[in-house]
Predict the 3D structure of the following.
Amino acid sequence: MKKQMMMIVVAATCATTVFAQLTVLDRYTIPLNKKGATVGKLVVPDGRKSVLVKDEAGIFVLNEGVLSLKKNVSVAPGTPFSYVVTIQCGNEIKSFELVKDEFVHNKVIAHRGAWKHHGVHQNSTGSLRHAIDLGCEGSEFDVWLTKDGKVALNHDNDLDGMIVEKSDLARLRTIPLENGEVIPTLEDYIALIKTQNKTRLVLEFKSNKNGRAIALTDSAVNIVHRLKAQAWVDYISFDYAAVKRVRELDPTAHIAYLTDDVPMDLLKADGISGIDYHYSLFEKLPKLYERARMLGLTINVWTVNDEQRMKTFLEMNVDFITTDEPALMLQLIGK
Ligand code: MG
């Protein structure tokens, strides 16, 4: 689908930036077929009033920080599916991309992309392309910070013996992956995911707990914002410092924690969006589900590869199921 983008300029007045917090909207998707639909509320450190100053598409209004479609305007399926908005916040000029909400909601998260039956490497551009082609709700991937400060995809600490954090991207790219590709960057993944508006990304921050997790988180979240990809990206990590850092940077991003060594009450108090636990935890502690629901946390379970477990978690109605077998799960749910 050929994407066309339209520029809309919105001006907002806001005060000093608090800490590293980024200027955000609380939603980046445009509901379909709904005249005057609310798109998102501008979240600025002091919540000061904002003003719409330019709208090339001529379809949006900004009223008291709430961006909406004009009263008699609605959007329908078909191109264009995204619109770029530029917001002025004090001296800051920042663009956001608003996306028509045609994202799929089938709970299927392809673990490191869809690679297993496709002859492609995990966390490769090919594995993401297959996850998109299959129609997964999301495609999960792992990122590290290279020695030269690039956000690169790899599951393990090393790629063919080369430690990712101690190597420059160019050196890592001398190692061919199984399917003839080279290690992708976050920018590569974002460029691909933004060619469509059905499948989203689930970005996992990797960490050796050596202090680079915060630098990685800062780099990755800022790349997502610079490339205006907020509508397409959720975050997860086993490193609670990274999880909390996402929340500091972006007050509305969806961020989930990958293990149960932090009580759910504390996750909730820290503003974390959800839990993302190994399936064995739910089997051992069935009340986890109820507890998470009571607290309003989203529920993801990993890594569910057999049919019976898929059925069980589908019946539980968890929000997301991460799997190495996305095609099997899609078959189960009748896609
Ligand atoms: Mg992962």
Notes: Residues 1-18 have pLDDT under 50 and may be disordered. The domain at 108-334 is CATH 3.20.20.190 (TIM Barrel). Residues 13 and 89 are 5 Å apart (CA to CA). The first strand starts at residue 7 and ends at 12.
